[in-house]
Amino acid sequence: MKNFLQQPAFYLVLLVTGCAANTGIRNTQQPVLPNIVPQSATNTDVNYITQVVQEVGPAVVRIDSTRTVAVSPDPVFERFFQGELPTREEVQRGLGSGFITTADGLIFTNAHVVANADTVTVLLKDGRRLQGEVVGTDSVTDVAVVKIPATELPTVKLGNSDNLNPGEWAIAIGNPLGLDNTVTQGIISATQRSVAALGVPAERVDFIQTDAAINPGNSGGPLLNAQGEVIGMNTAIIQGAQGLGFAIPINTAQRIAQQLIEKGRVDHPYIGLQMAQLSPELREKINQSDIDIEITQDTGVIVLGVARNSPAFRGGLRPGDIIETMNNVAIQDVKQVQQQVENTNIGNPIQITVSRNGSQQILTVRPEALPTK
Questions:
Q1: 333 an active-site residue?
Q2: Is 112 tagged catalytic?
């Protein structure tokens, strides 16, 4: 299920260096913060950031990946040789970060750091370099799990990203631009930053926004609170902006990672809708178009399209329907529709009430697994 609203001019850059990122972006500058130490930091000889880094730093790793890709011939030569030139293979290298969650070597990172990699190498802070095995990746949420052959490893403590508030301290540790074990500090700038407003591949994640400086190479590294708990996984920045970084909430990352560990994949519920948030401007545009739909309200979620042979199609949803409730939950925005679908098990019914041409219709839709293509 996607939100097909027009996207803004800016776009996000995933934070892996090398083959999967633009390394020419401007560095995010660390903000100047007042010299205020949280009450939780009781050691007056060492500030709380140093304490967090000493505790968590050994569990943050660098991840190097390689992948072989087919490179097409130069189009100039292709014009003259008309398909006679063979494609060649090229080894691309990427760099990201990750954090160890179990003493026997399970590591959380971003899917775009290790997806389709031929080799994955994990560098520990103590200097050890180990081959990693990709347990699973989920491109929808950009979460991956890697396993390394080691025991008695240092681990991070996972926090609760549901309890975050803007203004709380945030600490990022990672390997930006290949600079290992880099530490930056900032605050939580916003929570539940909808991907609908950002236009990124991770379609079902509401990001944590932070002004802690993060750059390409930070992908998969931890975002920490003042107590040293992981509250997010750093994943993206806005191209050309300063102080605008985004992290996957750790509760989301943990939920996805658990499924990857258990079965190697994640089955996301899917119903097949294209939607938009109604506004006076959108209502006027629809009513003035040549489609046979008349909209009389300025708020709510309107169905713009229904994928053929999708659960929504079989359930009777049509373009122009305005979604009023899902399983008796009043719907006011697109995000609520996405949440209701994501919270429903595949195959379980969702009762949807829609307004169609001024009359109410009650429909039943049974989500399927999100298609891979």
A1: no
A2: yes
